[in-house]
Amino acid sequence: MALQLLQPLREAADAFWRTTDRATPGAPHVRDALDLKRVMLLTLVALLPVVATALWNTGLQANLALAKMGLEQAPGWRGAVLAGVGHDPQSTLANVLHGALYLLPVYVVAAGVGGFWELLFAAVQRRPLGEGLWVTGLLFALTLPPLVPLWQVALGISFGVVVGQELFGGYGRHLFNTALLSRAFLYYTYPDGISGDAVWVAVDGYSGATPLAALSSADPDIGMDVIDPSWTDAFLGAIPGSMGETSALACAIGAAFLIATGIASWRVVASALAGGLGMAALLFHVGSESSAMFGMPPHWHLVTGGFAFGARRHHDVGPAGQRLRAADRLVRGGTQHRATGGTQWLRRPRARPSSWR
Question: What span, in angstroms and rounded, lies between the C-alpha atoms of 174 and 340?
């Protein structure tokens, strides 16, 4: 009985390394080497630039904070692991290794707990295990800050997989992006763990606001002057934020790979960008006397708030047909801009501009 419950895991491992021997017995036949397994594999490859930047920038921000605080090494077990490498912000190796000590535990918990729930449902329902668990766990980990508690990671991915995916029938039948639903669950249930100024830099007691957070609380007369990093730094990803959402360059490389391999449509990605830039340009033109957020130029929205990371993800779910998908992403791009730019106001409704009431 126990071996039968593990049958989906054995089939998933076998399908990962070898091609399945199953074939469609009747018409119609479609000859295409791009099956779901290869789609997930190519998506993981597209995420490699984002992962590399996340490792480097997470360690960079932590090492810079340690230097500003006058600390010689990181506290706890991470400091002991990095004892032979050091914490020099100018060292790429030190930055990458320091960042790995935060990203890898989050990913292991997300993939392990999410994989447990997928395996459990697959075993009970006697169906194959989906290939998307590695991608879902990695996407979820990349959207989180480095100081997020691991028990919240487990709780968030459990909600996303069980409620947002498995209750709808498993991978390919769910209505929502599992990773984003998991993050949204954490944001509204445990906001202190993934919001504020004290969670974006991997050093306890250090406060480092993201550009959007700094602008949301700034005086409208000061506006963009409160943002310390340059547009180039934000484009490269050398700013505080969620571990995998800071680098627009890495997201652009991943999106280009997905488009070149046929996984994503350039029309869909372009529509998402057009929707976001259009909404940003509209709000910038309207302006506001009560909020500095309206004073952010449209091109800055491409490199802040995780907009580029979200635009790169706009190939996963949506309606059938290129025109419908493009229209859907056009609306999503605009609403995503409103979401990323407006989350700083969700917990302070009195600070919202009167024009939005």
Answer: 24
